[in-house]
Design goal:
The protein has helices at about 5-25, 55-65, 85-95, 105-110, 120-135, 145-160, 170-185, 195-210, 215-220, 225-230, 235-260, 265-275, 290-320, 320-335, 350-365, 395-400, 440-460, and strands spanning about 70-75, 75-80, 100, 370-375, 380, 385, 390-395, 460-465, 490-494. Helix content is about 50%, strand content about 5%. The protein has one domain (about 105-365, about 400-494): Cytochrome P450 (Cytochrome p450), CATH 1.10.630.10. The chain has 17 helices and nine strands. Strands 1-2-7-4-3 form a five-stranded mixed beta sheet, sandwiched between helices. The protein is an alpha+beta fold and about 500 residues long. β1 (about 70-75) and β2 form a beta hairpin. α6 packs antiparallel against α7. The structure holds protoporphyrin IX containing FE and 2-acetamido-2-deoxy-beta-D-glucopyranose. Protoporphyrin IX containing FE binds near residues 128, 297 and 437.
Length: about 500
Amino acid sequence: MDLLGMPTIFLLVCISCLLLFTTWRSISQKGKQPPGPITLPIVGNILQLNPRNLPESLKKLSKKYGPVFTIYLGPQKVVVLYGYDVVKEALIDQADDFSGRGNLPLLKKLFRGTGIVTSNGETWKQLRRFALTTLRDFGMGKKSIEERIQEEANFLVDRIRNTHEQPVDPGIFLVHAVSNIICSIIFGDRFDYEDRKFLNLIELLDENNRLQNSIQTQLYNFFPTIMDYLPGPHQQMIKNIEKVEQFTSEIIAEHQAALDPTCPQDFIDAFLNKMEQEKRNGHSEFTVETLSRTTLDLFLAGTGTTSITLRHGLLILQKYPEIAEKILKEIDCVIGRDRSPCMADRSQMPYTDAVVHEIQRFIDFLPLNVPHSVIKDTKFRNYFIPKDTLIFPMLTSVLHDSKEFPNPEKFDPGHFLNANGTFKKSDYFMPFSAGKRICAGEGLARMEIFIFLTAILQKFTLKPVVDHKDIDISPLVSSLANLPRPYEVCFLPR
Ligand code: HEM
Ligand SMILES: *[C@@H]1O[C@H](CO)[C@@H](O)[C@H](O)[C@H]1NC(C)=O
């Protein structure tokens, strides 16, 4: 066969595959599929989608195809919901239909599927309900969660004071403090900041935050089967999670050995009690396996998110000293210099509250949301979406809506303030998503952010190491989570 022949035949085969595939797509369903760009077999829309910046690519596609469109991540079909109206219609008005978790390959690999974050159906319902009530009840006669956060804030402030005005990257301090709150809830106690085991654990999580930005990690979601065979940072991420899991398993074993059923001390104890109660059920969702995954889920979902929000927030406040100054005025006026900040203060601090909301809006931490799926064949607007289709209810499209938030790319606490200076609530404030899958730690996270931030600003002014005009507060975009650019800052005691 001549050499020209091979590529031509190959090309012909490709084109016919493509035609077959696209016709099959549009006629095989019980209704119209949302529109979308032409798709190649196997590689999907890799040509239109930049794996390093999916949010940007999807924004472009939404301009062309409207608020509901279809893309293929490799062979994986995804329906994208872009804009407040469709996200709200799906997550709130059709909450049940859209309550499934769609597991992107990496998510599935990291979280497995039997905890809260990645499970579906009865497992998810029961574990989520249990986690929400247990988180709410904690305190359980002992310290309330609010008190734990205040106590941890004191440790954090002491530690910052020990930096003696030298430039530091506050990242790791914030991770330790935030992580200790979730540790005290699930394991029963906080860790000392010097504790070896604790430091190892945090190092693993921190490394994973860094690795998630690598191109291999992004490509994993397109081509999991191939990437499973290739070495690289994505493999390290998976190994790290296994080590974290080993850590939690050990702690669970210790709890089992020491359990006093009449006096549960923490989330693990409460779960072990529940397992005991359900023993007579033929089939229970409460097993050592789901306990281990749920513990890990709370730990993973609760640490990086909140600490990165705080780290980004402290960078933004250096960029705008006049905004930081106004917060200080409110702190001095409502809390004073000595007493620990508490949640009751928030309602009297509308400006600070607005800044906290604006930080979460601006940093747009999870631009794609965590992927959902439809749990049954679903009619949405005029489209037909078959059961189990992956859905991206894009949070970035809601948080950057230019009608609700004029000049959405600008950091402006005015987005959450009325003209008379009172706090302005917005339905578009959705950093925790909405509906049945809304973040299970929202209340906890908001308490942590408010108390840690005000506790730091009550005691220190932030002095940037470069001219504040040169600070770049825009996030380092990736496809999963937006991160602040690395920085150092000096904390000057007030
Ligand atoms: C600033 C901090 C946080 C942000 C921005 C955040 C955001 C989110 C988002 C967007 C989701 C996906 C919601 C959906 O699927 O529609 C989620 C889920 C979740 N978050 Fe958070 N989160 C934060 C802190 C926390 C904390 C502190 C915890 C710890 C208790 C937590 C536990 C969870 C869990 C368990 C889920 C899975 C819920 C489910 O699938 O039913 N999160 N979070
Ligand atoms: C401030 O303005 C908002 C909306 O413009 C209004 O609902 C609120 O009652 C006002 N509050 C005061 C104290 O004037």
